[in-house]
Amino acid sequence: MTPSRRLLAIADDLSGAAEVAAAVRSRTTRSRVLLLGAPGAAGTATTLRPRHVGEATVLDLDSRYRPAAEAAEAVREALRMSWPDGDGRGGSGAPDTPDTLDTFAPFVLKKIDSQLRGNVAAEIAALAEGGAGVVLAPALPIAGRVVRSGVVHIGGVPLHEGDAWRAEAVPPPTSVAQALGGLPTALIPLTTVRSSRPTLLTALRAAATAGRVAICDAETDADLDAIVGASLADGPGMRLVGSGGLALAVGRHLATAFPATGVPAAPAATGPVAPGATGSLATAAPAAPAATGPAAKDTGSPAAAGPATPGAAGSAATAVRGPTVTDALGRGAPDATGASALATPAAAASTDGPAAPSASTAAEPDAAPPPSANTGRPVLVVVGTAEPAAVEQVRRLVEDGASHQRLPLAGLLADGPPVRLPALTAAVTVVSLGASPGSPGRTPSYEAVPLPSPRPAAPPSAGEAGPGSGRRLVLGLARAVRAAVAAHHGAVDLVLTGGETARRVLDALAVTELDPVGQVHHGAVHLRTPDGRSVVTRPGSFGDPDSLRHIVQALRPHSTKRKVTS
């Protein structure tokens, strides 16, 4: 890959796009995230033009829960618009040839969910049109998600035997090939992946020549590095598809393939991650992953996304690369002894419990928290994920003094005015879904609320979170966040869990472009809006129980000790 070669990355949701942007950004490569189809977004042909030589453009197509035909067309449109004249032919109008591909085409990376959710088959079929070779490697070793014999395993358990798809309306695929819905495939076994590059390259070429998607086994970051190296050896004709693990491998490849192109070097880490925390960033520079052995198994839960055991391939210390959370935030370093996430826990007393409905069918707590003594911007944490792990993450954040607002499902699903949040006077406010409007109170209650798939379906009954209501719930959540941010005098920093939640909230706030700053831990990406606001996105299934604590602490470092509870 030459310094002038452009990288086009396409993601089906926002948290995945952010993950890719952070993975590929380094001293040699700049990156940015564009939210296509967002209200107020600029024309596609204009926004896809790189701002800098060698810049990686990462597109969020927002296609995971769209109809398959629409998702496929979104991929085709992104590919067409990535050419200089926007017609996919390099300005000649002639069919693609090896020469025109080498001159005009960008390298293409398609980000998919490591658990194979979304329109995987339709989007890959669109990528393969025109005879382009497709290499699919969905492994994510850092999260204990590997591919063995063409089957995704999470913590050692085959995907179809676990509960990772519990919120989906259909059962999980029994293999990667089945997820492709009948597309012709060729399995590239682990023995071939770990053989010499010429052997692996020959296998990938044979699959492409036969019009088959090459499905690659992979258990370590070194496996993914080998797949990327072989795939890019022939130029842009081979299109890569995979999870954040493959994006990290692409980033390592870009960082070593050619000299720096003017991207400022990442400063030393000042992040607050405690020793041993999930995905802690031990170094800002890329490091070569271990060549043997799979990442350590997690506990079997798809929510477990902790690092591998020390020395294992895929550990956060070596795999998570690029810029870290740094002094670019404009705030000092945290206390090294494990500071609380809040500057003034007493001032930001918890108001946990469901918000009380007002006369306008909106909801708010029985009493607003007193103003924060901290002069920094408030942080609004929006938890729109159905993952059980989020319950404990919220509980720990509230333990540190965050104001917790549980919004009633009936209010979020209802037409009319948005659910009303109290004024953002607390240093940190966390918003999650409540089971019902209930009555106000300060007794902590952290029941898990099942969140259905956002894939469109028949409307649910009033006040119910039935099948197909997931999108309406998230839209209602986004409306509530927009109203709260609009009512606040000054900027508000955001933490958004779940790609669907993140996209709906940023659409509501008319944010169409983001620049990556770094990662707090794997998958928790710190980005900045054009007007300087901080946004942290994170997939719902990522992060250990202290994930939200670490994210908030990175945005608001200080020296206050964590509250001690009996």
From TrEMBL:
<feature type="domain" description="Four-carbon acid sugar kinase nucleotide binding">
    <location>
        <begin position="380"/>
        <end position="548"/>
    </location>
</feature>
<dbReference type="InterPro" id="IPR042213">
    <property type="entry name" value="NBD_C_sf"/>
</dbReference>
<dbReference type="InterPro" id="IPR031475">
    <property type="entry name" value="NBD_C"/>
</dbReference>
<keyword id="KW-0119">Carbohydrate metabolism</keyword>
<dbReference type="GO" id="GO:0016301">
    <property type="term" value="F:kinase activity"/>
</dbReference>
<dbReference type="Pfam" id="PF07005">
    <property type="entry name" value="SBD_N"/>
</dbReference>
<feature type="region of interest" description="Disordered">
    <location>
        <begin position="290"/>
        <end position="376"/>
    </location>
</feature>
<feature type="region of interest" description="Disordered">
    <location>
        <begin position="434"/>
        <end position="468"/>
    </location>
</feature>
<dbReference type="Pfam" id="PF17042">
    <property type="entry name" value="NBD_C"/>
</dbReference>
<keyword id="KW-0808">Transferase</keyword>
<feature type="domain" description="Four-carbon acid sugar kinase N-terminal">
    <location>
        <begin position="7"/>
        <end position="249"/>
    </location>
</feature>
<comment type="similarity">
    <text>Belongs to the four-carbon acid sugar kinase family.</text>
</comment>
<dbReference type="InterPro" id="IPR037051">
    <property type="entry name" value="4-carb_acid_sugar_kinase_N_sf"/>
</dbReference>
<keyword id="KW-0418">Kinase</keyword>
<keyword id="KW-0067">ATP-binding</keyword>
<dbReference type="InterPro" id="IPR010737">
    <property type="entry name" value="4-carb_acid_sugar_kinase_N"/>
</dbReference>
<protein>
    <submittedName>
        <fullName>Four-carbon acid sugar kinase family protein</fullName>
    </submittedName>
</protein>
<feature type="compositionally biased region" description="Low complexity">
    <location>
        <begin position="336"/>
        <end position="366"/>
    </location>
</feature>
<feature type="compositionally biased region" description="Low complexity">
    <location>
        <begin position="290"/>
        <end position="319"/>
    </location>
</feature>
<keyword id="KW-0547">Nucleotide-binding</keyword>
